[in-house]
Amino acid sequence: MNINISSHSSKRKSLSYYLVAFKEIIRFRAYLRILSLFEKLRDQMRGTDTESMIEMGELGFSKETGHRYEATPTFHLRQILKALNLQPTDVVLDIGSGKGRVLLEASRFNIQRVVGIELSGQLNSICRHNFSAKSLSLKCNQLELIEGNAGTSKIPDDVSVMFYFNPLLLPDFLATIQRALESIQRNPRKIRFAFYNLKYFDDLKSIDHLHLIKILEWKNFGLYRSRCHIYELT
Ligand SMILES: C[S@@+](CC[C@H](N)C(=O)[O-])C[C@H]1O[C@@H](n2cnc3c(N)ncnc32)[C@H](O)[C@@H]1O
């Protein structure tokens, strides 16, 4: 009897193992490649360069300084920006802005300005070049790029939205929130945070005055889930 139960459960276990493995193959070999092709096509049509994956080593930095360049999928990004209900007074800061896809998409809205903090000067110059593409019809043309470690950079005192797609390791990540709090003390206001595929969810629970206000979720054809957590800091 016991033998039957264990063989049945191991059969079930192996079935679910193969299903997960199959989904992972479809995800990486097909779905993400097709998505990337669409992103490259969009880039080509706009005269921009945002779609690529670049390891920190290739940019001349160690893995301990942060996470590689990889852009937020445009489709998700547009839904996140729409959910933020951006207003003309908003200033959007992308932590680890890379080649500037987030900044470009945010600039399609009528907002005050966009700011990027990025470690790599090489990526910052691609970002600047992207903003000069002729075919873009941006409603906001105020761009500020800060080159440096986001964990030690000051948050400008007019920033109202901060976007993250996992640029930093935990200590630097928490330091940016501390700097946002310092900025609020200098200039009292609300700051909204949009965390795309947040890794450090549990570490945010103990931060006072930080409230989760919305979660966006995408099922990606049942292959894997992507999420964006929107918080408000007061
Ligand atoms: C996952 S990419 C996100 C790019 C962009 N925000 C987007 O969503 O399309 C992470 C970016 O953070 C940058 N980065 C990594 N560590 C950093 C640090 N300590 N300070 C500032 N930027 C950093 C990387 O160079 C890379 O461009």
Write the layout of secondary structure elements.
Elements: H1 2-46, E1 53-54, E2 69-70, H2 74-83, E3 91-95, H3 101-106, E4 113-118, H4 121-131, E5 143-147, E6 161-164, H5 170-186, E7 191-196, E8 210-218, E9 226-233
Parallel strand pairs: 3-4, 3-6, 4-5, 6-7
Antiparallel strand pairs: 1-2, 7-9, 8-9
Structure commentary:
This protein has 234 residues and is of the alpha/beta class. The protein has a single domain (55-233), classed as Vaccinia Virus protein VP39 (Rossmann fold, 3-Layer(aba) Sandwich), CATH 3.40.50. The chain contains five helices and nine strands, in the order αββαβαβαββαβββ. The chain has helices at 2-46, 74-83, 101-106, 121-131, 170-186, and strands at residues 53-54, 69-70, 91-95, 113-118, 143-147, 161-164, 191-196, 210-218, 226-233. The strands form two sheets. A seven-stranded mixed β-sheet has the order 5-4-3-6-7-9-8, sandwiched between helices. Strands 1-2 form a two-stranded antiparallel ribbon. The longest helix has 45 residues, at 2-46. The radius of gyration is 20 Å and the shape is globular. Bound molecules: S-adenosylmethionine. Residues 59, 65-67, 69-72, 94, 96-98, 101-102, 117-120, 123, 149-151, 165-168, 172 line the site of S-adenosylmethionine. S-adenosylmethionine binds at residues 59, 65-67, 69-72, 94, 96-98, 101-102, 117-120, 123, 149-151, 165-168, 172.
